[in-house]
Write a structure and sequence with these properties.
The chain is an alpha+beta fold. The chain has 4 helices and 4 strands.
Amino acid sequence: MPDFTMLPSLLNLHQIDNELHELEHRLNTLLKDQVAAKADINRIKDEILEMESAGRKIQATMAAHELDIKARQEHVEKMRTSLNTTKTNKEYSAILVQISAEKAENKKVEDVVLECMEQQQKNGENLQSAHRQLAAAEAALAELQKLNAQRVGEIESRMQKLRESRRIALAKIPRDAAQQYERIRKKYPGQVMAPVEFDDNNLDTITCGGCFMSLNMEDVNLLRGRDEVRRCHSCGRILYLPEMIPHDVISPG
């Protein structure tokens, strides 16, 4: 095989991009866990706000009913006092009927107040439970952030070095080839280039290592004879032969 420079340079860039892509995935996974934890905390906070609002509404309802009960009781007391000033049995009986009706209505309102008290107690218990959940979730997030801080720092440091290596590697590639590479990278992040694969059991079977569609011997001969970009007819990835992979990849530790 001739002494190629462009394809090995593309492969060098490809290997750098592969590692960058993998590190980005790892970083996103770490941050995704934190985002999910924060979303859970926000959900609990929203539930607490709803329960607090519900508690205030229940309290306001109870206060209104208690004022109603008090007003009826005062009315009953006035009617009882007026019994002493009635002049006929008919008037006396009419007041007794009114007193009985007011007492019955108060009993209904008192039952409603009792229901409100039960709701308030249950709401208070749920609120306490939600606050415990919130404290636990916030503690878990703090621990996760602590554990991830070093990992994130290491990944970002490695990515920074790789980006510098990428800049150097890209500068060594002819402009047209670099432009083709960058266009394909938008479609296949981390998978711009694909090896030509041979079937050991059938030498006539040659495929693209990216999409696994068939290639022909002409593609192989062109790759072996010319230091130029050859792309898969099916997926468009840049093809290379396994023996072209460089050993001196630019990748600072």
